[in-house]
From TrEMBL, chains A, B:
It is a multi-pass membrane protein. Residues 1-23 are annotated as: Disordered. InterPro entries: CASP/CASPL, CASP_dom. This is CASP-like protein.
Length: 211, 211
């Protein structure tokens, strides 16, 4: 039978002898460690993809300022004039930073076999942030979609009246940024499933992973 | 030690003797059944609250048609003119219906001790739908928020130009409906945590609940 302490930050799975450091002491532990490593590698891939999507989305939207066609002396049409687009940039930038930090933490866990924070805090921290940020990102991109659609339909222009025919690049770049943001949200939602599974394992077995 | 079959739709927990039907055969089973019943009661409460919020939100938005002040012969300002508000109604109506069905299924499970669908399908069905619909509802209400804000700022009126001063009731009613929708989304997210835990229990222990 498994002890509830089994695999808590490597206790009981690693030899206390410093010369054997990092080497599991029995077959069951080896399988567990390998499974946990594979699980963490999958999380790492999801976090990397989320990072790429949200970084691209942030950059696309943050560089989205254009001069309307045939209006060389005119005012720039910029994402900063629209609350919803500011929300898209903020949401994606937060996720970008969060994914970067989490990638670091996951790589640490894969290499060292222990979590940076105490394990209980780590599993709850990961899951709660993943879940909350996934909702945040879906909300932000959804808000951006409505604004992009309102601009395309001709209403909702701030300050000066334009149409997407005059500032086509602005409308297209917004749409691309929002689509990339939704891509990031989907992969963050996938990470949520995995970190949620870790929390459940922790509650049920008292370890980060079940054998 | 628990068998993986333990508590699968009551197998092994109920006596095969028809006279003992519904009565657990040993102490461990009694505790498990009671725990599962309490867990399901909590889910039922969350679903009921979600249902109330989303029903209220749907009704508030669906009845949101007003004549602008001092414009007795004018056109009605209605939620049907706005894509985002239609999305709010659709999203909340779906959740309302879904919560009703799930309440029925949960009451069945509490009373009969078995799930309506085969247990594997049931736990995955519950969790996947909870998760997807929670994202849907957050997105819908977030979209509605942007539209409500755009109307308040004076842009984005469809057909005729108004302001929230002229059609104050329309703007307020939209805001109330969206707030109620967010309330429903939060409780749906809470249900997701519980149904997600059931899935994890299923994967790890092969039963709907752990002792």
């Amino acid at each position: 039978m498994r002890s509830p302490e089994f695999m808590r930050n490597g206790e009981g799975t690693m030899s206390p002898n410093p010369r054997n450091r990092g080497f599991p002491t029995n077959f069951q532990s080896t399988v567990s460690v390998q499974k946990l490593r594979r699980f963490n590698s999958l999380i790492l891939i999801f976090r990397l993809v989320t990072f790429c999507f949200s970084l691209a989305s942030t950059v696309f939207m943050a560089m989205n300022s254009h001069i309307p066609n045939g209006d060389a002396a005119g005012e720039w049409v910029s994402w900063t004039n629209y609350d919803a687009f500011r929300y898209v940039v903020a949401g994606n930038a937060i996720i970008c930073l969060y994914s970067l930090v989490q990638m670091g933490a996951t790589i640490w866990e894969i290499l060292k076999g222990t979590t940076i924070l105490p394990e209980t805090i780590q599993v709850w921290f990961d899951f709660s942030h993943d879940q909350a940020f996934a909702y945040l990102l879906f909300c932000a991109n959804s808000a951006g979609t409505v604004m992009a659609q309102a601009l395309r339909s001709g209403s909702a222009w701030v300050g000066q009246e334009h149409s997407c025919n005059e500032v086509n690049a602005f409308c297209i770049q917004s749409a691309v940024s929002i689509s990339l943001g939704f891509g990031g949200a989907v992969f963050l939602a996938a990470s949520t499933l995995l970190s949620g599974f870790k929390v459940a394992c922790w509650i049920i077995n008292g370890s980060r992973f079940h054998l």
